[in-house]
Amino acid sequence: MDTQDQHGRTRSHRTTKAPPGALTEARTKALPEARTEASAKAPSKVSRKPSPRLRLLLAGGTAALALTAGLASPLNPAPQQAAAKADGKKTLTVAVAQSVDSLSPFLAQRLLSTSIHRLTYEYLTNYDAKDNHAIPGFATKWEPSADKLTWTYTIRDNSKWSDGKKATAEDAAWTFNKLMSKEGTATANSGFVANFKKVTAPSPTKLVVELKKPQATMAALDVPIVPKHVWEKVDDVSKYNNDDSFPIVGNGPFILTDYKTDQYVKLKANKDFWRGAPKFDELVFKTYKDQDAAVAALKKGEVSFVAGQPALTPAQARELKGTANVKVNEGPGRRFFALATNPGAQTRDRKKFGDGNKALLDKKVRQALFLSVDREALVDKVFQGQAVEGEGYIPPRFSEYAWKPSADQKLSYDPKRAAQLLDEAGYKKNGDGRRVGKDGKPLDFRILCHATDPNDKAVGKYLKEWWGDLGIGLKVNCLDDVSVPWYAGEYDLAFDGWSVNPDPDFVLGIHSCAALPVKAKESAATDNFICDKKYDELYNKQLAEYDPDKRAQTVKEMQSWLYDSGYMNILAYPNAVEAYRTDQIKSITTMPTAAGNIYGQDGYWSWWSAVPADGKSSSKDGSSTGVIIGIAAAAVVLVGGGVLFALRRRSTAEDRE
Fold first, then answer.
1. Cα(first)–Cα(last) distance of the chain, in Å?
2. Which of 98, 63, 209, 198 is nearest to 145 (CA)?
3. Whole-angstrom Cα distance, residue 94 to residue 298?
4. Are 123 and 223 in contact, with CB atoms under 8 Å apart?
5. Are 574 and 311 in contact (CB under 8 A)?
6. How many CB atoms lie within 10 A of CB 67?
């Protein structure tokens, strides 16, 4: 729940899955057409206009780009190497606040885990770091049949697994067929293949996917391709965490060499990676339970990079901006921060479970809660300006799919109207000023809070005050792991968030009836047990629509429905605020390159492109907004779709992708 993506669920998924305002252009406009490796490198000619809130930020990013002209881009790596240390090994250490839920691509849902998979396994396609359009990955070309029901992918012939075996179309076919089998593989990415009819590999360089009906996400299948010769030996994929033997066989830019639960994940550069080897010899994700401790480690030089959960707090950012040899990167993020209601936990066959407050089944009650939250105040007081006020489900960074409510539709802060709706719903104040139902019981709610996320705790205090003024009681239940009560449906509301991918299908799909769990309390794709016929009709309509403008319109209709329902209250789109040591990292790629994030990208550009520093002091001022480091000068273009990354679920801090 981007949580991180959390993908990253904050169930963080906040993970992935969030993010403020940089506008973008759809990467899917050329999706029905054949894409080639050559055409993917062609410069974009699309004009993009940033929102007023972002112009200042993007202007700073443009200036940064001008200063970095001549440095390497993700597709043209040629930066100067830093001098080797005494032992000859150059190590980049990243401080993280999230645990690995699984090293299995079939099971992992948290942002950290899925980010590691982006580094160690290839996907059919990747996202361009500059503008998010689809570019070659494991596949060099993809094209549909005339009826759009058969897609043929040309698999590159220069990729090999880290154990020396050649990577082929057969590995991709095996991966997709395994997902389609649902043999314990439905946890993470099964939604991508729900519409697949048949997948075959006629030759080592040809993959053919037959669909039941048209599917607009065929150049956005965020599924790690695994080596068949390794995984076909696994007896039960549903119980295999891929952590019993190292190094783990992969074909990405890094090779996973070691892992200790809640301590570290170690990777080494894949010298045989087809796009070119990373510049750092080793990449280490080091776990810190205390974010302040991670910041202190950065100041001491014990780690190279720190991102927060996934963003640094305003206080931490201010502290680091005054630290020598530390650069703070701030830009529009790809996440949203939200309140999710529990409208009644249910299984796919509609069996109810959990103990959610039945008052939330009433739309008027949900909307009353919505109206009694001052989102503008939260951006100002909690995020201290490092966020944009929330509205639609898709962050404004993905402009093609971003949506805003009309003036008449907007549920602005209005406590009087909220009180009126509660009265109409039958929850009037008693002599003690408490809202009570017709049964005489007071209206009290519980909200799940991530113990490691300061934003959850800070917002919780405001909610207690605002809802208390309405006569509603609130218990803020902060836990290290919110996944247990969340999956069990034993909560009323929850702090939620996702990291959004360039294509919006995945995050939209988590609210469909098909995402509900098969059995009570089991892990599933659902975000908060929503199941509605109208929403499902819109979801299926957008999935089958290849015309980008028509599809975008349907996606906006879905967001309008979510907004009116009151199930999801998007509070803010937090900026990506992170920091790194300039005496350890000379240059690194943000995504988008004009003003974007480093940690939790839709790709592997940041860590793959990072260039070691020579260890000398390089900065006294740690501030930087929308910085682009190590990238060729580029226009300020933030493109995108708006899809939250493929199902990455809840957990602690920021775990959705």
1. 9
2. 209
3. 9
4. yes
5. yes
6. 13
Asked whether residue 291 carries a pLDDT value surpassing 60, the answer given is yes
Question: In sequence order, what DSSP letters do the residues of 589-648 get, joined into one string?
Answer: --BSTTS-BSTT-SSSHHHHH-EE--SS---S----BS---SS-----------EEPS--
Q: What angle do CA 167, 228, 644 make, to 5 degrees?
A: 85
Statement: residue 293 has pLDDT above 80: yes
Look at residue 55 in the predicted model and tell me its pLDDT.
Answer: 39
Sign of CA dihedral 74, 76, 79, 81: positive
DSSP alpha helix (H) spans, 96-193: 111-120, 169-181
Fill in the amino acid letter for 529. F
pLDDT of residue 615: 62
Measured between alpha carbons, how far is 274 from 251 in angstroms, rounded to an integer? 9
Nearest to 414 by CA among 375, 446, 382: 375
Residue type, 4: Q
Buried-state track 625-637, b at ≥16 Cβ within 10 A, e below 16? bbbbbbbbbbbbb
Specify which residues 355 forms β-bridges with: none
Could you tell me which of 36, 47, 243, 263 has the C-alpha nearest to residue 156?
Answer: 36
Residue 552, token pair as written in the block: 């975008």
CA–CA dist 332, 350 (Å, integer): 39
pLDDT digits over 624-646, tens only? 443 333 333 333 333 333 333 33
What does the alpha-carbon distance between residue 542 and residue 139 come to, in Å, rounded to a whole number?
Answer: 25
Spatial distance between the Cα atoms of 103 and 116, rounded to a whole number of angstroms: 8
User: Which bin fits 21, alpha (ψ -120 to 50), beta or left (φ > 0)?
Assistant: beta
β-strand partners of 139: 155
Which one, of 650, 627, 188, lies nearest residue 453 by Cα?
Answer: 650
Q: How far apart are CA 302 and CA 589, in angstroms?
A: 22
CA distance 174 to 161: 15
Kindly give, in sequence order, each residue whose CB lies less than 8 Å from that of residue 257, ignoring residues fewer than 6 positions away.
246, 247, 248, 266, 267, 268
Q: Look-up: residue for tokens 């949203």?
A: 336
> Rounded to whole angstroms, what are the CA distances from 537 to 195, 427, 533?
15, 33, 6
Write out pLDDT tens, residues 559-604: 999 999 999 999 999 999 999 999 999 999 999 998 899 999 999 9
What confidence tier does 169 reach under pLDDT thresholds 50, 70, 90?
A: very high
Strand-pair partners of 150: 210
Task: Judge whether 211 and 149 are in contact, CB under 8 Å.
Answer: yes
